[in-house]
Amino acid sequence: MATICITGGTGLIGNALAQYLSAKGHAIIILTRNKDAVQSGNVSYAFWDVKKKSIDANAIAAADYVIHLAGANVAEKRWSNNRKAEILNSRVDSAQLLVKALQETPNKVKAVISASAIGWYGPDHGTPFTETDPCYDDYLGTTCKQWEDAIDPVTNLGIRLVKLRTGIVLSNNAGAFAEFKKPLRFGLATILGSGEQMISWIHIDDICRMYEYAIEHEQVNGTYNAVGPNPSSNKDLNIALAKKLKGKAYITIPVPAFVLKLVLGEMSIEVLKSATVSSAKIQKAGFQFLYPTIDAALNELVR
Ligand SMILES: NC(=O)c1ccc[n+]([C@@H]2O[C@H](COP(=O)([O-])OP(=O)(O)OC[C@H]3O[C@@H](n4cnc5c(N)ncnc54)[C@H](OP(=O)(O)O)[C@@H]3O)[C@@H](O)[C@H]2O)c1
User: Fold this and answer.
1) How far apart, in whole angstroms, are the C-alpha atoms of residue 279 and residue 268?
2) Which of 4, 65, 106, 180 has its CA at a distance of 20 to 30 angstroms from the CA of residue 127?
3) Domains and CATH numbers, the chain
4) Which of 33, 165, 200 to mutate for ligand 1's pocket (most ligand atoms within 8 Å of CB)?
């Protein structure tokens, strides 16, 4: 069993991942900014302050693997210039701090698995995006590029690096899926914009399993899209969800693009963007999805 240090391990993915890996018998050390976090079972906490560039070197010394998830939430607040800087800097600065700690602390870390995002890619261009496509020249595209560049020096230390360009994670606990469900409490299935835009999603259990797979398989090395094999349109996903939750007792409410632009500002670009992303590379590396279709994912989530 391994010791796995997870930065940002208190968030949506990190929470689920820490529980998943600890249930498998691994010792988990969560690197957090929250000094009140209390050890529970196999999960302990260590502290870092990215702004002050301080990090608990003991956590790095103890780790066999590091999973890097930390970063200010992309969808939580409107994208003011300050918020955009925080989203970028929290990722770049934390990655740089981690690399420095790995350089300066004697350690036995075998691999670093870092989150990235499919925000790397632009709007659909005819064929599904693959890992060799260049980053798109917009805010999220260039943010993902700087985020990935900041963690890349890990490879100069002789440590295997895996970057998971993650799609929209479907979980009941938070994130986009929890937002899709909210209006359905009132019987409303909201269709955003035309509803035709493709969402490259992944079930929360599959993203946890993919991190585990990246840890366990040395041949997994470099960048992989962490999306399921069957993206859905916004409309298909929301109607399928409405049917599962409400049977026939729902009405569809289109939310026009201009309303989304007014409410969300620049972030609306991401909600309205169609992004069909390929999962072929990780599947070729042997990863198998538990929830490959939206029907399978919703059956598990809406129980
Ligand atoms: N969820 C998705 O659909 C999705 C999709 C694509 C990519 N991703 C990426 O995957 C990673 C994990 O996603 P998630 O949904 O679990 O994120 P999340 O719920 O927002 O959690 C991220 C964690 O990062 C830490 N954090 C927040 N602001 C920070 C800051 N300013 N400086 C340093 N650390 C900070 C927090 O941990 P502490 O408070 O304990 O320090 C937080 O729990 C993120 O980098 C995210 O961009 C997620």
Assistant:
1) 25
2) 180
3) 3-169+201-227+276-290 (3.40.50.720)
4) 33
